[in-house]
Amino acid sequence: MMPVLHGTEAALKPLNRYFDAIARPALERHGFAYAELLRNWARIAPDVAAFARPESLHFPRRAGKGHTAAHLRLRVQPGRALEMQHMQGQIIERINAYFGYNAVARLSFVQAPLAGAEEETEKAPQGRPDPAVLERLRRAARAVSDPDLRESLARLAEGVSATAARKS
Is residue 34 within 8 Å of residue 54, measured between CB atoms? Predict the structure, then answer.
């Protein structure tokens, strides 16, 4: 249970200080290795952490005594699974090096959007266009005889002037 804070103690604190207490009930059924993977994924696999995250870790049933390496399923942003397949060996090596033993033997990938992941494509400008710049660009577009090209240039002018307004 997390302590109740009063007065000056109630300052904001980093969530990682309370991660174990908050996540323990959910992670107990997955074991220590899965909790470590989730908590340190960006450190274990920094080049893929932006578009791939651990989804589940399955340990096969043991036929005899001894350690059996797990099967890790990663959730990967659509379009990145092929790249992940090519990096599969490196990812397994990094995970096993982090744990210091053969923790993961196999990877599989599920292509699905990641919750909270940033979009890779740039979004349309949201600033207000500078009226003077916009009018100057529209005048230049009016000189074009092709109506489709003229319309495209006008839209481009709005985007350029909005981007310029955001940067200033």
Answer: yes
- How far is 24 from 43, CA to CA, in rounded Å? 20
Q: How far apart are the first and last CA of the chain?
A: 48
Tokens 């660009």 -> residue: 137
Architecture of domain 14-111: 2-Layer Sandwich (3.30)
pLDDT computed for residue 120 by the predictor: 42
Whole-number Å distance between alpha carbons of 19 and 50: 20
C-alpha of 111 from chain center: 13
Higher pLDDT, 120 or 71: 71
- Where in 59-161 does DSSP place strands (E)? 70-76, 104-111
Is residue 61 scored above 80 in pLDDT?
Answer: no
pLDDT of residue 116: 64
